Amino acid sequence: MILPIRAFGDPVLRKKGKDISQDYPGLKDLVSNMFETMDEANGIGLAAPQVGLDLRLFVVDLSPLAEDEDYADIATELKNFKKVFINATILEETGEVWKFNEGCLSIPEVREDVARHETITIEYYDENFNKHTDTFSDMRARVIQHEYDHIEGILFTDHLSSLKKKMVKGKLTKISHGEVNVNYKMRFPK
């Protein structure tokens, strides 16, 4: 089922997510719906707050990037990178800090360079509640950091300089008022 994606300005996007128990009602359906919603919106990551739930849950599917020639050197890793992250905690961020132009399904039509660490180590549970501690680099680390921010109540625009924040303020206001054209289902703040 396609869920509406919450737009910038919705208070749930600023809430720190709550941990999920293994017996969370409808967890399998929620994960499936989140992947379906993300795919419908042509996204590569989606966090529970973006569908209105203040939970520590996000999904990532980087297979669309495997076809992009910019990622030819890691295409194999990206092609099979479809993961569920439950109750995640980033344990360490290391390596070079690099900027990359990011966007967000909750903040359509806004893209800006964000500086993030090259490598992360993260502890999380998968959809079957198996615990993992993994280290990821490159685009995998970047997308995970972006989605992880969502479960911490942080948006990519929070990482921008004061000047950049002023420059996008008008666009953010328009998004919060529903003045944006998207080809996916969105819910705007009241």
TrEMBL record:
Quote the catalytic residue positions. Answer: E147
Per UniProt, the enzyme's principal EC class comes to hydrolase
Listed Pfam families: Pep_deformylase
Its required cofactor(s), as named, are: Fe(2+)
- One example GO MF annotation: metal ion binding
Binding locations of Fe cation = C104, H146, H150
Q: Could you state one GO biological process linked to this protein? A: translation
Q: Does Protein biosynthesis appear among the keywords?
A: yes
Query: Which of UniProt's keywords are assigned here?
Result: Hydrolase, Iron, Metal-binding, Protein biosynthesis
Q: Which domain of life is it from?
A: Bacteria
Gene3D superfamilies linked to this entry: Peptide deformylase
Record-annotated membrane-spanning stretches: none
**UniProt-listed InterPro entries:** Peptide_deformylase, Peptide_deformylase_sf
Q: Catalyzes what?
A: N-terminal N-formyl-L-methionyl-[peptide] + H2O = N-terminal L-methionyl-[peptide] + formate
Q: Give the EC number.
A: 3.5.1.88
Q: How is the cofactor bound?
A: Binds 1 Fe(2+) ion.
Fetch the NCBIfam families from UniProt.
pept_deformyl, PRK00150.1-3
Main role? Removes the formyl group from the N-terminal Met of newly synthesized proteins. Requires at least a dipeptide for an efficient rate of reaction. N-terminal L-methionine is a prerequisite for activity but the enzyme has broad specificity at other positions.
* Stated family: Belongs to the polypeptide deformylase family.
Q: What is this protein called?
A: Peptide deformylase
